[in-house]
Amino acid sequence: MVLDAVMSTRMETDSLGSVEIPVDAYWGIHTARAMDNFPIAKRPISVYPDLVIALAMVKQASARANAQTGVLEQDKADLIDRAAQLVIDGSFHEQFTVGVIQGGAGTSTNMNANEVITNIALELAGRPKGDYAFLSPIDDTNRSQSTNDVYPTAIKVGLSLTLQSLLQELSLLRQAFLDKAVEFHDVLKVGRTQLQDAVPMTLGQEFHGFATTLGEDYDRLRENAYLLFEINMGATAIGTGITAHVGYSQTVLHHLRKITGLDLQTADDLVESTSDTGSFMSFSASLKRDAIKLSKICNDLRLLSSGPQAGLGEINLPPRQAGSSIMPGKVNPVIPEVVNQVAFSVAGADLTVTMAAEGGQLQLNAFEPVIAHSLFQSITWMRQAIWTLRVNCVEGITVNRDRLGTMVSSSIGSITALTPFIGYAAAAALAKTALLTNRSVADLVVEARLMSREEVLKQLSPARLSGLEAITAAIPTASTSDDTERGERP
Q: According to the lineage, what is the superkingdom (predicted)?
């Protein structure tokens, strides 16, 4: 039993003392201490695979740069390179065990990466884990680096990788709304402002508006993503480049660009960029913008589908699950509701990023771990929310054509289309009469001999009511003409 206990662990030592590490663990003493110190989120950094991949990419680029500048033996660099590639390819992610929320400005995350990649490399060399005299996590894998340039660079690379999947889902959702816009292009309905009846439009126009606003957010996210391409590799501790070879910064940039496929650039001022988190704030703000606009769309979908008997009932959302444990037959708009909640979380995360950015002092922001967690969680949740909104809701929306037709035919809002011909005052009086008597606007206009029935029907056609076909030029009133003749602004 004693022999088994000895065989199941290995001893590692740092400046604080020695710790027993499970013999099969690829992480080491620094990771072990962090796991004890930060039982906060109960979520390891491996929950964000692109962050782990980005860390491995940085270590791989650094190994290549260190070999090229002559500060690391080629055989050691090759081992680190091969080990990092295994992580990039998806292996050993479960070994990235430190919590996403941690003190130390990300040092625990960087050391977790150093230890895992080093021990993978040791195995590739046929050496036992923990044989740091042969290959060191700090002297070799972390050569020419500091947490203070590795960690923010890995966050930026990881966010850039994750963003691609979010943009793909956003594009698919936009197309789903465009498809519905085509399907509903001829469905006339009553538009609303301030929840009150306004003027007619088509349901296709409404859904096309959803698609357009998502397209705008797609562009804003891509624009702000470019801010993440400025990195500070070579800055080391505070931006002065201490312990790094003079050619390291540009060399590691070359390799990291090649590995990631991203148009990365080294910051002009490494001291400034090491402490600056402005790019994270801008990126977070663009995520919040998209989330809030998605939430507004979901609010509209919930309103338009409200009922089915006592609400607007214009559209039907796909029934996804029973809506009540007490009311039989009730079905709730659960998909838009979950997207709403994701939007609330993203908005809160944006405030967290803002406060963390403000809380940094002097040459380093110690709160980048919570910035990273907030941004990666927001992107991940947004991506999944957009997927479920498209697949489980938007693609299956149907329309209640008869109900919409009834509402349009009885709406007094259509008289707005006749104001260029009969004037606002007459239109307002007839609208009031129509509302009180429940009579047709068209009939009242014809009875008042303000327009012929043929002209009324022409102007109240679906194409003209929805703005798809121009109605007429404005008819100037006498007061407008007089003011213009006097040179006064109409």
A: Bacteria
